[in-house]
Specification:
- This protein is of the alpha/beta class and about 200 residues long.
- It has one domain: P-loop containing nucleotide triphosphate hydrolases (Rossmann fold).
- The chain starts with a strand and ends in a 6-residue tail after the last helix.
- The chain is about 50% helix and about 10% strand.
- It has a five-stranded parallel β-sheet with strand order 2-3-1-4-5, sandwiched between helices.
- The protein is built from nine helices and five strands.
- The longest helix has 28 residues.
Length: about 200
């Protein structure tokens, strides 16, 4: 089965692009959704709350806002959090791939925001990077709840620059234009990927 990695820096429109692929019938695995579920209940909640102070909500979930505040400016705490969460996310991803392969789908998309940062590009056959102009990215991100210019800059500092990701991509979807333009790009890329799936992987 053909595996495609989908990534892009914050505010580039990656989630919207993933939804467009999903509408075309492509199975999507979303790393962020898996993390959000891990923060709701189970061993991840226990392990994170044992390491980080005051991150539990009254009903026993992880308060993502409080957790983010602790790790954003502290690389050692971020690494500690990743050491807890990443193995659980990886297990979930392998289960998704296994299920999809049993269903004989042509290809799947793994939506991984930190694809390059976690060196996960080595685990996929092709990489799609979602990109847009910097001023549009900033405008989108600053409309989000609990977002400030300082926080946005800090998030960018923890991510590989967009230009670097674009250079390493097999395909780039540009979202600076209209939604219709993005849909056209997704439709055309889906056709290309379906063709690629028919070829032996070593070609």
């Amino acid at each position: 089965m053909f595996i495609v990695g989908l990534t892009g820096s914050i505010g580039m429109g990656k989630t919207t692009i993933a939804q467009m692929f999903q509408k075309l019938g492509v199975p999507i695995w979303n790393a962020d959704e898996v993390v959000h579920k891990l923060y709701e209940t189970g061993p991840a909640v226990e392990q994170i709350s044992a390491v980080f102070d005051d991150v539990l909500t009254p009903d026993g979930r992880i308060n993502r806002q409080k957790l983010a505040e602790q790790v954003l400016n502290d690389s050692s705490k971020l690494k500690k959090l990743q050491s807890i969460v990443h193995p659980m996310v990886a297990t979930n991803r392998l289960q998704f791939i296994d299920n999809a392969s049993k269903n004989n789908v042509p290809y799947i998309v793994l939506d991984i925001p930190l694809l390059f940062e976690t060196n996960s590009q080595k685990t996929v056959d092709k990489v799609i990077v979602v990109s847009c102009r910097p001023e549009i990215q900033k405008q989108r991100v600053l409309t989000r709840e609990n977002m400030s210019e300082e926080k946005f800059e800090q998030i960018l500092a923890n991510q590989i620059p967009n230009e670097t990701k674009v250079k390493q991509a097999d395909f780039v979807i540009e979202t600076s234009g209209s939604l219709e333009d993005s849909e056209r790009q997704v439709f055309e890329l889906n056709q290309k990927l379906l063709e690629l799936c028919k070829k032996p992987k070593h070609d």
